[in-house]
Known about the structure:
0% of the residues lie in helices and 39% in strands. The protein is mainly beta.
Amino acid sequence: xxxxxxxxxxxxxxxxxxxxxxxxxxxxxxxxxxxxxxxxxxxxxxxxxxxxxxxxxxxxxxxxxxxxxxxxxxxxxxxxxxxxxxxxxxxxxxxxx
Length: 97
C-alpha cells in the first residue's frame, strides 16, 4: 500500500458508500444514486501555516466521518481506490454517533 500524507491543511478522504435503498424500502439503481457527501478521513496534513509562520494544527483527525461540499476537493486514485483531497475549510461538519 502506498503511504500518503497530505501537505499543510489538506485532508485525504474516502467516500462512505451511499444507501442503495430509500427510506420507504425501494432499491435505487446505480444511475439514480448521487455521490455521497460523507467521507472517512484517511490522512491529515500537519496544519495550516499562520501569518507568524507558526503551524496551526487541524481540527479533524484520521478516522472521523465528515460532511463536505458537493463540488469540493480534487479526486485522486491511490492504489486503485478513489479518494478526495480537501482543504480543511471545505469540510462542513464532523459526524458523530
